[in-house]
Specification:
Distance between the termini: 29 Å
Number of strands: 3
Strand order of the largest sheet: 1-3-2
Structural class: mainly alpha
Strand content: 5-15%
Order of helices and strands: HEHHEEHH
Largest sheet: 3 strands, antiparallel
Helix content: 55-70%
Shape: globular
Number of helices: 5
Length: 105
């Protein structure tokens, strides 16, 4: 049996929001365009068809999780995201993430 603490409970509860951000980012395919190099929020919004202000909020969450790196005005991919969240890479895990997203309802 797991020894629960207030910190462990709040961490587990918050994982839902991390899952939502990951599901949205994979569904919108925000990682793949960044494989070409760093982009601003506006450039990435143009590539993905997203509203810049809304995308900026999502990118902030992804940066907080370590799935993106923000350098000034631009975002770029850390190695994990490049290898596992960009379509076309052999280690791409987006298909299973999309499956999990479909299970949510």
């Amino acid at each position: 049996m797991k020894d629960w603490t207030p910190s462990a409970l709040l961490h587990a509860s918050g994982m839902y929001w991390e899952s939502c951000a990951i599901h949205a980012a994979v569904h919108l395919d925000v990682f793949t365009p960044l494989s070409d190099g760093p982009m601003t929020v506006t450039e990435l919004a143009d590539r993905t068809g997203c509203v810049p202000q809304s995308l900026d909020r999502l990118l902030t969450a992804l940066c907080a999780m370590g799935l993106l790196i923000r350098q000034g005005e631009t975002c770029e991919l850390p190695p994990f995201s490049r290898n596992h969240l960009c379509r076309g890479n052999p280690g791409y895990l987006g298909h299973i993430v999309e499956h999990h997203r479909h299970l949510m309802p």
